[in-house]
Amino acid sequence: MKQNKFIVVEGLEGSGKTTACKIIKKILYLNNIKNVITVRQPGSTFISEKIRAIIKNDYKKEKLNKFSELFLIYSARFQLMENIIKPALIKGKWIISDRHNLSSIAYQGGGRGINISLIKILNTLINKISKPNLTVFLDVKPKIGLKRALLRSNFDRIEKQSKKFFFKVMKYYFKFLSSEKNKIIINANKNIKIVKKNIKSQLQNWIKNN
Ligand code: Z5A
Questions:
Q1: The domain containing residue 152 runs over which residues?
Q2: In this structure, what are the phi and psi dihedrals at residue 131, rounded to the nearest 5 degrees?
């Protein structure tokens, strides 16, 4: 093993994904896995970062249509998969991605109510480029996650959605997580020390068995 794995970190805003990506990178390093790239979605290529700015901004002049949002997110994802992730995996590198396909199922499928079969077609195309080897899901209550996100910075366009929106996002996360074979679920409501400890023990176990 220890060759080219693709790890995805998922969860609501403020669940601690960015923090978890750093923790995972450290744990991999301690396991002598040093060839690691961290990316975020949408983003992490020149074009994908431009798309990210469109997704996150709340333009007063024009509302972003939910299908435009979906296709923008997938445009960013195809750029990232083809230009960064695929070549890096071919070179034997490890990838840690802050969000991936499951975010689209949860936010665009659950939150926005877009037909899941359309999102699944897009996911199939993305998975043909490469499929994640592991999903680390940070399970946080929307109220706790949003409070943390607000402490960090002002809400962006998606974070301004209603409580009902985030409950639907969580419902879809769990509905579709059940079909993910390789996953680690972390109680992210706990304090950072406990979260770190739990990620460490579950990830070590996964590394040992893969
Ligand atoms: N989006 C989508 O709709 N569909 C898609 O397919 C994809 C994305 C890929 C990306 O925004 C937006 O794109 C996102 C969904 C949408 N929309 N929103 N909103 P982003 O990347 O800017 O935001 P985010 O992905 O939601 O993450 P975040 O808000 O940056 O949060 P986080 O990465 O999960 O958490 P963090 O930065 O690690 O931690 C946040 C703060 O909490 C920070 O001060 C930490 O120190 C603190 N923290 C972390 N863990 C803990 C614990 N356990 N206890 C206490 N405090 C903690």
A1: 6-209
A2: -110, 140
